[in-house]
């Protein structure tokens, strides 16, 4: 079905561009839309959806954005529209709930945050709202010192030194609010450098250049993370790498049959990608996501922690493959 949708999308793009951009006396269709460029645009749109939404585009979305790009809409305009969409912002809100509260959003909370983001709230202000909340305060220990240590762990990804904890606790004692303190963490160069580097790793598959603080400074001066993401997605580097990627028709896990291991052991998996005609593209393990019962497998090594059957699932470019791994009692 995915292949059929893609073929229909390319055909629809050509027809829409011809009907909306070309006068009655225009050249034939093949002169209006270069098939190679249309294919590159389609690959690009698919990659944007997979990188930002972790799914393949629906047919209407693929046609809409491909048509816009072929018609001359700048990539940055398309990227900005996608990153300001409700779906993308919902993902940001879901991530914040999971990271700081360890749960998903309730319907009312989700809508409240969506309205706030539509009104201009930044990702950092969103995260601060969770970190400064009574719920996060309570779950982190309910004292100033415990809360500060939780910020170092959850925001900076490291343990706090005794002097660091003492400094922030003193600031709170002097009247600083939890919102002010959390924004100090969230707008710090240490934190934002890791955030921007994460965007580079996810979208460009490389690290940010050493000493490159342009994006970090932009966020500190009021730019939205969505603008940074859009800028990367609209860049020539992203276009050149994604528009030429071969179209993946299917994926498989290897080993591709059900296997078993003893508790405490593990099974390593790789992901192979194939073109629609079945020819092998190559190993896609580094770009794929492999999980056991929804839990991440590190570098393809799956180590379920309980006896029984567990689903091993791979996801890559909107495609899925799964096998069963049975964990046996220790020998």
Describe the structure.
This protein has 331 residues and is an alpha+beta fold. The chain has 3 domains: 2-73; 87-102 and 120-240, serine acetyltransferase, domain 1 (Orthogonal Bundle); 250-328, Immunoglobulins (Immunoglobulin-like, Sandwich), CATH 2.60.40.10. Helices cover 54% and strands 14% of the residues. It has helices spanning 2-21, 29-32, 35-53, 59-70, 75-83, 86-101, 107-118, 123-131, 134-139, 144-156, 162-173, 178-186, 189-204, 214-220, 225-233, 236-242, and strands at residues 250-254, 259-262, 267-268, 270-274, 280-283, 289-292, 295-296, 301-302, 308-316, 319-328. The strands form 3 sheets. A 5-stranded mixed β-sheet has the order 2-10-9-6-7, with no helix packed on it. A hairpin with a 2-residue loop joins strand 9 (308-316) and strand 10 (319-328). Helix 3 packs across helix 4 (59-70), helix 6 (86-101) crosses helix 7 and helix 10 (144-156) packs across helix 11 (162-173). The longest helix has 20 residues, at 2-21. The protein is globular. 28% of the residues are buried.
Total tally of structural domains: 3
CATH architecture of the largest domain: Orthogonal Bundle
The spatial strand order of the largest sheet comes to: 2-10-9-6-7
Measured distance between first and last alpha carbons: 45 Å
| Helix/strand class | alpha+beta
Helical amount: 40-55%
For the record, the CATH class of the largest domain is Mainly Alpha
Strand content: 5-15%
Q: Tell me how many strands there are.
A: 10
Order of helices and strands: HHHHHHHHHHHHHHHHEEEEEEEEEE
Largest sheet: 5 strands, mixed
Write down the overall mean pLDDT. Answer: 87
Rg over CA atoms, rounded to whole Å, is 23 Å
């Amino acid at each position: 079905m995915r292949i059929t949708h893609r073929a229909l999308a390319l055909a629809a793009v050509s027809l829409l561009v011809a009907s909306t951009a070309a006068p009655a006396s225009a050249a034939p269709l093949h002169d209006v839309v270069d098939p190679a460029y249309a294919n590159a645009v389609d690959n690009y749109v698919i990659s944007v959806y997979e990188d930002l939404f972790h799914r393949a585009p629906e047919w209407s979305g693929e046609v809409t954005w491909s048509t816009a790009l072929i018609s001359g809409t700048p990539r940055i305009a398309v990227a900005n529209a996608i990153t300001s969409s409700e779906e993308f912002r919902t993902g940001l809100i879901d991530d914040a709930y999971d990271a700081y509260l360890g749960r998903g959003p309730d319907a009312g909370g989700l809508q409240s945050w969506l309205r706030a983001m539509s009104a201009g709230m930044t990702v950092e202000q969103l995260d601060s709202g969770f970190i400064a909340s009574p719920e996060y305060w309570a779950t982190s220990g309910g004292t100033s010192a415990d809360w500060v240590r939780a910020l170092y762990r959850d925001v900076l990804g490291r343990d706090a030194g005794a002097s660091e904890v003492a400094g922030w606790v003193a600031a709170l004692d002097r009247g600083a609010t939890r919102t002010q303190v959390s924004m100090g963490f969230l707008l710090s160069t240490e934190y934002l450098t890791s955030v921007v580097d994460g965007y580079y790793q996810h979208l460009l598959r490389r690290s940010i250049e050493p000493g490159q603080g342009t994006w970090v400074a932009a966020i500190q001066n009021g730019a939205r993370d969505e603008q940074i993401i859009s800028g990367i997605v609209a860049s020539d580097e992203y276009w050149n790498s994604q528009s030429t990627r071969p179209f993946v028709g299917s994926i498989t896990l290897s080993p591709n049959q059900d296997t078993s291991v003893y508790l405490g052991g593990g099974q390593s998996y790789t992901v192979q990608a194939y073109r629609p005609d079945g020819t092998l593209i190559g190993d896609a393990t580094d770009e794929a996501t492999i999980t056991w019962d929804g839990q991440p497998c590190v570098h393809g090594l799956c180590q379920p922690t309980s006896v029984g059957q567990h689903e091993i699932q791979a996801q890559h470019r909107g495609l899925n493959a799964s096998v069963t791994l049975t964990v046996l009692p220790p020998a």
